[in-house]
Amino acid sequence: MTRVLLALLALFALSGQRDPILVPEVSQHEIRVRQGFTGTELLLFGAILDPQGRRAQQPYDIVVVLKGPTEPILVREKAKKFGIWVNAESTAFRSAPSFFAVASSRPIDQIVDERTAAIYELGLGFLQLSPSGAIDPEEQARFTLGLVDLRVRQGLYQEDSDGVTISDGVLYQARIEVPSNVTTGRYTAETFAITDGRVIASAIAEVQVQKQGFERFVAEQAEDSAFLYGLFAVLLSLFMGWVAGRVFALV
């Protein structure tokens, strides 16, 4: 934390700008997913000062958005027909964040209006998803709500309206839980300083989530040699089935 403040002061000394400067930091820039990984807690912190390196004269709110790699996804609805739940309507999204977490110093609707929240995606209700092809707006909203609800239950989408604490009007920090089922790749932690409903400063820090050890080897083989990996998986399943059959035959 001290190094961050010193860097801020040096930056202010060299800068002639009038707007406050926000420099965020994260507790770890690399999350390694190994066997037995049960998730981790990511600490996002930083400070905001005026151009002279002093405490900002006006109060402000902080909103932190941690977003994972985007991916295409197909969302299906379930319908009950003849007493059986089956797949019904579906829609595809070209890009949906694999992970999305928002933490703020107050509820979003007390910080900004809906237009500003939508521009910066400040909340689960303001996610900008891109459907594949033409789709009715009401239908898109229904499928979007379904996707958000599913990923909230999986721990992949989060929103905490009291998740940012601000100390002495200068330092802030937020803690976000990263579950074990996260997608690997590049994550961005974007921090917004907001006052009077207006974003006065923003900055981005990056976090890399990557597999390590045997999990990384398996993932690389599945991607680089998909056919051989699939063939090996089938043969391994047959072999394990044969072994299980032999064991039960001897019991």
The radius of gyration computed from the alpha-carbon positions, rounded to a whole number of angstroms, is: 23 Å
Distance between the termini: 63 Å
CATH architecture: Sandwich
Bin the helical content: 25-40%
Which topology does CATH recognise? Immunoglobulin-like
CATH superfamily membership: Macroglobulin (MG2) domain
Query: What count of helical segments does DSSP give?
Result: 5
Q: Sketch the topology as an H/E string, one letter per element.
A: HEEEEEEEHEHEEEEEHH
Number of domains: 1
| Secondary structure: number of strands | 13
Oligomer: single chain
Largest sheet geometry = 6 strands, mixed
Low-confidence spans = 11-16
Name of the CATH first level: Mainly Beta
Look at the structure and give the mean pLDDT.
80
The 3D shape can be described as globular
| Major sheet strand order | 2-13-12-4-7-9
Content-based structural category: alpha+beta
Q: Give the percentage of residues in beta strands.
A: 35-45%
Describe the protein's topology.
Layout: H1 2-14, E1 21-26, E2 30-33, E3 40-49, E4 61-67, E5 70-81, E6 84-97, E7 100-104, H2 114-120, E8 130-131, H3 137-153, E9 157-160, E10 164-167, E11 171-178, E12 185-195, E13 198-211, H4 214-224, H5 226-250
Helix pairs in contact: 4-5
Descriptive notes:
The chain is α+β, with helices and mostly antiparallel strands and 251 residues long. The chain has a single domain, classed as Macroglobulin (MG2) domain (Immunoglobulin-like, Sandwich), CATH 2.60.40. 29% of the residues lie in helices and 40% in strands. The protein contains five helices and 13 strands. A six-stranded mixed sheet has the order 2-13-12-4-7-9. It is globular. The chain starts with a helix and ends with a helix.
